[in-house]
Amino acid sequence: MCGIAGAAGFRSRGRGWLEQNVERMCKEQAHRGPDGSGLFFENGVCLGHRRLSILDLTDSGAQPMVSKTGRFVISYNGEIYNYKALAKKLQKKDPHMTFRGDCDTEVLLEACEKLGVYQTLRYAKGMFGFALYDRMEQRLILARDRIGEKPLYYGFSAGGFVFASEIGALRQVEGFHNPIKREILPLYLTYGYIPAPFTIYEGIYKLEAGTFLTLEKEVIFGERTFDPVKDGACGVKKETASEQPFFDGGGYQMHCYWSLVEAALCGEKDPFEGSMEEATNELEKRLKKSVSGQMVADVPLGAFLSGGIDSATVVSLMQSLSETPVQTFTIGFEEEGYDESKAAQAIAAHLGTRHTSLAVSEKEAKEVIPQLPSLFGEPFADSSQIPTYLVSRMTREQVTVSLSGDGGDELFDGYRSYVSEERIWNKMRRIPYGLRLLAGGAGYALLGGEGKRRTLTDQLLLLQAATPLDLPYIEQTREDLLAGSLALSQKMPVRRKALSSLPVGYLSGKELSGAARENRLLDLLMYHPDDILVKVDRCAMAVSLESRVPFLDRDVVEFALRLPDRYLREGETGKKVLRQVLTRHVPKELMDRPKKGFSVPIEKWLRKGRLKNWAQELLLSGRIGIEGYLDERQVGRMWEEFTKDRIWRPQIWYVLMFEAWLQECGKGGA
To answer: How far apart, in whole angstroms, are the C-alpha atoms of residue 593 and residue 615?
Structure first.
């Protein structure tokens, strides 16, 4: 795992300026790669890299790396788990092919040159974000993995093109004054995160999962700029994988090498039809292969163990593949209902892992909060970021790589709300379309949720009450919290254009066999890459820990998308087939426990003590009125309802995280 950065264009600047600024960007990401750094410069293009050594700890893995022919240069963040198979594929094509070391970076680089970027990415299994520069054609390619495990930001600032693994690195460019993208605030106040392709800044974007972007020399050398959202390069067009670009902007092209929507639709057309035992065997085989591939490392390796089914399954398979006890890690809290450490300890004892558990005090947890704005780089308000950071910090004291159970809920029907949404939709779909539009608000009132996910599943119910591109719930977002001029601006056509670029647009006209299936897919398109995976990446990389997610292996994902509901759910209990896998390794009594999730009692903490004082300073000091982004009166009313009447709204934390970010990081972009 590493950090990448780069810049191109800046025609009025010299080599020294470019190298200095890319070096500053890399330094800002030093936590992503404390083991080494490097720069490449040629004709106005500069690539930078920070290295966290995981495979081949020698200098043969140093980056940026130049291909054998000298034509291509790569700056790469991630892991290609099947790089040895990819190397054999290259050697079959060219028997004289040799490699300088045992490094996935070199294999990926040579494959891109010999097979082409599209074919390489179709074959590769892993997590990555990389920049590839073609010196002959003066062409720059940015690519991101299938599901969005690794981040990649890009855009224009200060007169040139820039990219980096973290948005905070882009702010280090001299002259970065990109304004806050005001029309994105309703999205943030709805979800608590900013969904791709957007960021908090004008002119800066997230590269979407499963895609790569090709920039021709007229763009990278600053002769023209582009806006992929306004140009229509994001959203509904990324439906199928193809070697041909799905968008050609004349100077830049967007390519889709793997589509989650296409995989889901293929799964619908070719469902798994074997017995439950056969489904269990197939899932265990694929998961074990994924876990085995992700256990390859030249540094100490372990796993997060929360006590839930997903992480327990990953750890069980790890231990079955290991001759020595696997190192596992969990944290616990004092508050009842938030402590999974005892359950994790019981599973660890049964499996025989070398388990480490840390009891975290309220004081320790609260001390993390001021670090969050700079850690995430833009407003982000999933409060489970707190325990995720704490367990990552503890884990890094003993290992450099940690596997996690993320993805199990979204793939195997793990959220209880999937069931309630299915039930409501089965009733609402009988209502004529016109009446469904009116019924949307009623559906929202009826729908139960699970804390952080609620806003997303609320939205999907209303999407289904109308049509995905209508996005009626977005119209009901927390606009009362926006400053008056901002609230009015959200009625403008630009907002509709922005909303149609969200991944929910991929579902337009592509109804799956039920609301639960569509919900799982939508979560995999938005909530998982833009919330869960962002949280895991930033918290782990903040302490130089590489996190790996076996459930997100392509073969596991595509198999899960083929499973009809009867393999996933029994009554209102999800993860049926996954539970069957786990019962082969862990006694049933260790599994039958209520789902808690990885969360903290943020509502309780905000009611008293230092955290309450911190919140009131942010919300009631008069700063909000001066900034002009939020309605100071409405925010104050929401806080009063919370402190006096105990009415909790997730938007309280969303607003706090926005204000904390604005105070810490937002001044340069305001």
So the answer is: 34
What is the pLDDT, as a whole number, of residue 518?
Answer: 83
Assess whether 634 and 518 both reside in one domain. no
Which of 257, 284, 307 represents a domain boundary (last residue)?
Answer: 257
> For the chain, how far is it from start to end, CA to CA, in angstroms?
32
61-118 pLDDT tens trace: 899 999 999 999 999 999 999 999 999 999 999 999 999 888 999 999 999 999 999 9
Rounded CA separation 553/81 (Å): 9
pLDDT per residue as tens digits for the range 220-242: 886 678 999 888 888 655 678 89
Confidence of residue 510 (pLDDT cuts 50, 70, 90): low
What integer pLDDT is reported at residue 425 of this predicted model? 54
Q: What residues pair up with 142 in beta bridges, in sequence order?
A: 131, 213
Q: Are residues 515 and 551 in the same domain?
A: no
Domain end marker among 526, 557, 579 = 526
Highest mean pLDDT: which range of 424-438, 440-454, 501-515, 538-552: 538-552
Q: Is the pLDDT of residue 499 over 60?
A: no
- 29 with 60, same domain? yes
Question: What distance in Å separates the CA atoms of residue 277 and residue 81, rounded to the nearest whole number?
Answer: 28
Give the C-alpha separation, 283 to 274, whole Å: 12
What's residue 59's pLDDT? Answer: 78
The pLDDT of residue 577 = 98
Q: How many CB atoms lie within 10 A of CB 601?
A: 17
Phi/psi at 204 (nearest 5 deg)?
Answer: -120, 135
Q: Please tell me whether residues 543 and 644 are part of one structural domain.
A: no
**Cα–Cα nearest to 290, from 69, 125, 422, 514:** 125
Amino acid at 75: S
pLDDT at 153 over 70: yes
Give the predicted TM-score (pTM) of the model. 0.91
pLDDT per residue as tens digits for the range 294-337: 999 989 999 999 889 999 999 999 999 999 999 999 988 877 77
Q: Are 206 and 192 in contact (CB under 8 A)?
A: no
Task: For residue 408, give every residue at least 6 positions away whose Cβ sits within 8 Å of its Cβ, in sequence order, or none.
Answer: 308, 309, 310, 313, 414, 551, 575, 578
- Considering the domain boundaries, does residue 328 fall inside one? yes
Q: CA 60 → CA 32, 75, 106, 546, distances in Å? A: 19, 14, 9, 20
Q: Which residues contact 373 (CB under 8 A, 6 or more apart)?
A: 379, 657, 660, 661, 663, 664, 665
Count of C-beta atoms within a 10 Å radius of residue 142: 20
3-class secondary structure, 556: helix
User: Which residues lie closer than 8 Å to 582 by C-beta, 6 or more apart?
Assistant: 309, 312, 313, 316, 591
Q: Are residues 351 and 390 in the same domain?
A: yes
Which whole number is the average pLDDT over 450-464? 42
pLDDT, the chain, mean = 86
Q: What does the alpha-carbon distance between residue 93 and residue 88 come to, in Å, rounded to a whole number? A: 9
Give the distance from CA 194 to its chain's centroid. Answer: 11
Examine residue 34 and state whether it is found in any structural domain, yes or no.
yes
Cα–Cα dist 18/24, whole Å: 10
Range of the domain at 575: 271-412+534-590
Q: Answer yes or no: do 611 and 571 share one domain.
A: no
Backbone conformation region of residue 280, classed left if phi is above 0, alpha if psi is from -120 to 50, else beta: alpha
- 445 strand-pairing partners: none
DSSP letter for each residue of 363-399: HHHHHHGGGHHHHHSS----TTHHHHHHHHHHHHTT-
Residue 276 pLDDT > 80, yes or no? yes
- Tell me how many domains the chain contains: 4
Same structural domain for residues 362 and 460? no
Reading the block at residue 160, the tokens are 């040139």
| Angle subtended by helix axes 309-321 and 276-294, to nearest 10 | 70
Structure tokens belonging to residue 668: 């340069």
In the chain, the largest separation of any two C-alpha atoms, in whole Å, equals 75
